[in-house]
Amino acid sequence: MDLQQLLDDICAGAASHYGQGRVADYIPALASVAPAQFGIAIHTLEGDLYSSGQAQKRFSIQSISKAFSLTMAIHRHGDELWQRVGKEPSGTAFNSLVQLEFEKGIPRNPFINAGALVVADSLCSRLSAPVHAMLETVRLMAGTASITIDRKVADSEYEHRYRNAAMANLMKSFGNFENEVDRVLRAYFSYCALSMNCVELARAFSFLAADGRCPQSGRQWLTKRQTQQLNALLLTSGLYDAAGDFAYRVGMPGKSGVGGGIMAVVPGRFTVCVWAPELNEYGNSVVGLWALEELSKALDLSLF
Amino acid sequence: MDLQQLLDDICAGAASHYGQGRVADYIPALASVAPAQFGIAIHTLEGDLYSSGQAQKRFSIQSISKAFSLTMAIHRHGDELWQRVGKEPSGTAFNSLVQLEFEKGIPRNPFINAGALVVADSLCSRLSAPVHAMLETVRLMAGTASITIDRKVADSEYEHRYRNAAMANLMKSFGNFENEVDRVLRAYFSYCALSMNCVELARAFSFLAADGRCPQSGRQWLTKRQTQQLNALLLTSGLYDAAGDFAYRVGMPGKSGVGGGIMAVVPGRFTVCVWAPELNEYGNSVVGLWALEELSKALDLSLF
Amino acid sequence: MDLQQLLDDICAGAASHYGQGRVADYIPALASVAPAQFGIAIHTLEGDLYSSGQAQKRFSIQSISKAFSLTMAIHRHGDELWQRVGKEPSGTAFNSLVQLEFEKGIPRNPFINAGALVVADSLCSRLSAPVHAMLETVRLMAGTASITIDRKVADSEYEHRYRNAAMANLMKSFGNFENEVDRVLRAYFSYCALSMNCVELARAFSFLAADGRCPQSGRQWLTKRQTQQLNALLLTSGLYDAAGDFAYRVGMPGKSGVGGGIMAVVPGRFTVCVWAPELNEYGNSVVGLWALEELSKALDLSLF
Amino acid sequence: MDLQQLLDDICAGAASHYGQGRVADYIPALASVAPAQFGIAIHTLEGDLYSSGQAQKRFSIQSISKAFSLTMAIHRHGDELWQRVGKEPSGTAFNSLVQLEFEKGIPRNPFINAGALVVADSLCSRLSAPVHAMLETVRLMAGTASITIDRKVADSEYEHRYRNAAMANLMKSFGNFENEVDRVLRAYFSYCALSMNCVELARAFSFLAADGRCPQSGRQWLTKRQTQQLNALLLTSGLYDAAGDFAYRVGMPGKSGVGGGIMAVVPGRFTVCVWAPELNEYGNSVVGLWALEELSKALDLSLF
Question: D3-299 maps to which CATH number?
């Protein structure tokens, strides 16, 4: 099958799915994004790039950054990290604080907010400039020096920080938080405010399809086994409370963000990133999910 | 690598892991099983069989039966089934009744007890003899007419039915239970009391590695896509509250039972079943998990 | 103040509060009760009776029966009963099964459904005819031989028994339920289906205002201290999830039922019963609450 | 009965109950208090004072301060306050954050920590110097100008603030917190760090036995009805998760603190304060509970 043609077909079909979700509106900087947009990009292990639609338009990557920060933390802490955060899928969103309390401050996995806060805390403990280090790493991974953090988004998130602050303080009360809450929140929101496009994200995550080695920089970010493990975690926990449905429909490790982006991995073949700002009730891109399911069915990409 | 040699090596190493868990003891029929036992069997798509240890000794398959009953229910109900049961991993065991109440009687997935009860209920609605039908199906899948249900185990489970009865009644109060609670409990406990060995289980589940077609009977139990979907559900929810850890360590779809068995699938290649009665705190076979991790590492079986 | 005049004034004012609630509709037998009705009766320790409105019209006493069954259980079991049920107010209704699970099958107090089921279970353990015994006791307390159980209501409750059956089974799984679930449910629903009027209820509970001695029968149902303790429990837990608000507004021990009745106690002075079928969101009679607050304010009845 | 003799008898009996609990140890300043101490004081509406044991020794009043701050908040906000905090007893301590999340940031009552934080927040909104104002009020109520705040205790509490900070941030995320979290925490911990003795506390709370009028200062802190309402809240929610048991055993409105103090009210007669530092599992003074139960039985003080 012609991959470019497939992406163009999917892009052409996307418009008929507009209007089924809502753009994230908990901060003004996200609420102002135009809803009817779609981009998709595939970056193969051979270095080929295929894209369609607004694949060059940057958006707020939000929770997709949790896959970057977890990579950095595994790189630095190795297996020690798993003393502080679990590997199990969480139950409903409703349970977030409940579970954190029941499990005495150990978040269930590194992709729920509490878990990503612990990951950010672990980076703050090792790095004097955790935001700068992240930016440099992501630029290196994506091979693009112009990637930046949208300060307006980061500041706006900080102004609405209270629920995350509650979780960080609760973990601190259980002894599972090393740094000042405010410093970690600042770093965490900066990570979420990274502004990237589909092409850059597909390229930046290509190490996940390549046994941990970044084709752009040649850097071995993770060992082969760590890469398999990270992909396993993405599959079981990467899409908020819809990870099971994503595995069922798409069958690939992936990570979504409320900016409307979703990146996914076909180990040994390629990485893909879609973007469409309208979200469903679980905070995942409606059209993005549809596009990845189409792609998976067309190319029989399910790992199962 | 010589597969038979590998299984023999794993079998030889198993003994050094005895004593780290406890045999299930909530009913006498299970509590009396000798702890220091180990069996393993692989059944390839080419029809080759490799086994080591007590691979021919039958044990109580318990929750592994949930993969059989779900297959039968998907076969009969198709996508309709998902109106009554979710596809998402559950949180902690502690939450079972909490979540069931919070989600108004819809179990999170078909492998937690509440979900398997709904699946059994759906079979009771379509089949006049749901236990007989299951037995016939499993015999056909395994190619072994001598497989039976251990009535002593089934009766003993029924005598300790109260927690499952609580869940069934709660679902009935929410309108998500069609038959008399007692009839469904009887069927459910009969399924759990199927007595099979590693070879029979590896053979019976080979359709999961073969796009839904049973090599023994030639029957197409599920479509290719349904098979991928079932494998995806097994990976995200098949090992109780340790599904994330299993994906991380082993990287294969699988289903465990408190009888000490675990079956796992390598799509396109083979199915494997291990058995060792000692369980860890999550109800999974301690030595079985170790054996599957060894196998996965030795043959690089992780799907990720 | 002229008590009769006060009751007549309250009765006259009741009509202006009609229409703010809804008649219980989870079973047909209750749903068919006409909403715009009001009755009130006071029975003093001197034996004087004051009443107004439909104080002679019988209604389904429902959960008010929990105060009768608890009296019988304390009479028979004494302090032993508190090994099986707590004395603390519960949190939200939502939590019922959660709390029961978290506290390992011990209901928080004898007035939530789970607690009343344990109380009924304890009576079934001691009495060969627990329904007959209750009927005889209540007739004696009220001094009215014609009181009966409405079989249609009891049967209808039994047909909708599943949530209560879930709780009973859950308690049985924790070892806190002695008899067959079905037998206890039958008794429990029979108690709830007692049909009485305001005058009969005010008279039947007069022992609670009189240090445990029934003025009608001369029987000492409880010791003085047990009576104080039961009144304390009624105050902290008698009105479902609105006990705090009732104490705040009315300031008297009381017990409500979804039939629209509320009985309350002024220790050393009198008992009062109101009836008005429309319920608020907590399952308490809207007009009944208003009437008791008016009465409490007019006569300065708050115990505090 | 000779009241002084009774208090002396109780004081003499207290020693035999030492050793059954543990002094609060979550902050060093409290952990260093000697456990085997007991004091009791009664202040009657006639102005008579009876005391025994270490009734003049000051201790950290901790949560008893919540009755002071609630009085001040009702005085200033009236019924408006109840838009922000409920009047219902809470379930288990375990549920604190759960309930706060489930009920969207509205604490169940003003005596759990979350509720007291909202009360403190409401005072911070109205008062430019909320700590100074509290100190002046309490001095006036007790008729003792020398009452102070123990800065060491307040600072130590602040250092261990994280669980309270989590709750305050969670409420802020729900829009139920007006001021900066840190400012309110400082005020809240200062209130808890008030250092007073049994005599001072009995005197300071005498307005609760006297329809809201302080006999010392002549000030009407609350209306008669507000006083009844506050007493009702103390009875249903004043003793953490043991309010039901306290009502059952003692039968009086009361408020305890982890410093080992308990104050209680007999409306129309007197206020009493006991102090003994050893706490039971619910955080209430073991010997204090025993003493109040003895007192209640000896004088038949139960309101019920």
Answer: 3.40.710.10
